[in-house]
Amino acid sequence: MKEPNYFIPPRSFEIFGFDIYYYAVMIVIGILLACVAAGLLFKRRNIPVDWLFDLILCVLPLGIIGARTFSVVTDPGTSITEWFSGFRDGGLSIIGGVIGGALGVLLFCLIHKVNFFRVADCVVPGLALAQAIGRWGNFFNQEVYGAEVTNTAMQWFPFAVYIENSHTWHYAFFFYESLINLAVFALLFTFMWKFKKKPSGLAMCGYFFCYGLTRSIMEPLRDSQYILGYNIPVSLVFSIIMCVGGAVCALALLYCNRRKYGLVIGAAEGEPLAILPQYFTKEQLKKMEEEKLAKAKAAKAVQEKRPPRGVLRCPECGAKIVAEGEISKCPYCGSPIQLPAQSDGTERADSEGAQEDKK
């Protein structure tokens, strides 16, 4: 068997006698970067950034609880009594974390009375980024890999990974999924940052479709000890549900958008797309837009009633007078003068010429 030609790091390091696992470090880094991405999209989509802390308080605990619970319930080798005892030894399911996190987003939206799809769209790009980074924790833990690679020409990292316990090379599924999640993050973040007039919830559906499709393809190819479930691969079932549900929900959103606006992806009104100094609700923004249009119409009406600007000569002193609107007398000699309300500059010029001829 070909030995690895790269450094295999230890699973943990020690600080003040306390073991810190690299797996946990990668997860924490992923969570922090996910919060940064969500904060940027919150500001971009005119959602108060100070709400981000409330979102973390709702999503993070429920996400961890969901990840651990899903792993314990679907693993036949783990009993429910081991929920806490084996927590630090691993046993977290991303699918369970996504389900728990979704419940956390729903709780946040109920508290702040904001649209669930709008918030979820801002969260899922960062979630994909966190998964891309967190998957490298599986590299440190020597887990989440595929079948054995017997062809020596294919035994190289990152295509394959050397597992010390079995002293064999396996397909590096954690690396494949990390790259796919990174691509999904780039796609969803760009979509959320660039496109203003889109149905809320479309990015969330795109995430579920992409992640569900990826797991549906990779789950049957993983090593059997990492497939959660009893007689059926539960993770595969949930992955298929995510994929199909995301696609159906996206089509439903596009259909409803077409029925409402006559467009598949566009809309008559879109969410505010700018980094604003303060938060405005949709009703406030609509009222501000109506006031702006009313002022523009009023200014246009005044401009239409006002005669065009012209130059007159006083019939008494002959002084040139720049007039705009009706005037009553010459500012130089005080002689009465009247500017006829005319809408054409040529007619005014004719009037001025007639006055000069008369003089």
Automatic annotation (TrEMBL):
Q: In which pathway does it act?
A: Protein modification; lipoprotein biosynthesis (diacylglyceryl transfer)
Residue ranges under compositional bias (Basic and acidic residues)?
345-359
Query: What Gene Ontology terms describe where this protein resides (cellular component)?
Result: plasma membrane
Kindly give the InterPro entries that the UniProt entry links to this protein: Lgt (IPR001640)
Tell where it localizes: Cell membrane
Q: Which domain of life is it from?
A: Bacteria
Q: What is its EC number?
A: 2.5.1.145
* Subcellular location, principal: membrane
Q: What class of enzyme is it?
A: transferase
| Segments crossing the lipid bilayer | 20-42, 51-70, 90-109, 169-189, 230-255
**GO molecular-function term, one example from the UniProt record:** phosphatidylglycerol-prolipoprotein diacylglyceryl transferase activity
Protein's UniProt keywords contain Disulfide bond: no
Region described as Disordered: spans on this chain = 338-359
Keywords linked to the UniProt accession:
Cell membrane, Membrane, Transferase, Transmembrane, Transmembrane helix
Q: Kindly list the positions annotated as binding a 1,2-diacyl-sn-glycero-3-phospho-(1'-sn-glycerol).
A: 135
**Annotated GO biological process:** lipoprotein biosynthetic process
Its membrane topology, per UniProt? Answer: Multi-pass membrane protein
A Pfam family the protein falls into: LGT
Q: Does the keyword Electron transport apply?
A: no
Its function, per the record, reads: Catalyzes the transfer of the diacylglyceryl group from phosphatidylglycerol to the sulfhydryl group of the N-terminal cysteine of a prolipoprotein, the first step in the formation of mature lipoproteins.
Question: Can you tell me which family this protein belongs to?
Answer: Belongs to the Lgt family.
Q: Which NCBIfam families did the record assign? A: lgt
Listed name of the protein: Phosphatidylglycerol--prolipoprotein diacylglyceryl transferase
Species of provenance:
Candidatus Borkfalkia excrementigallinarum
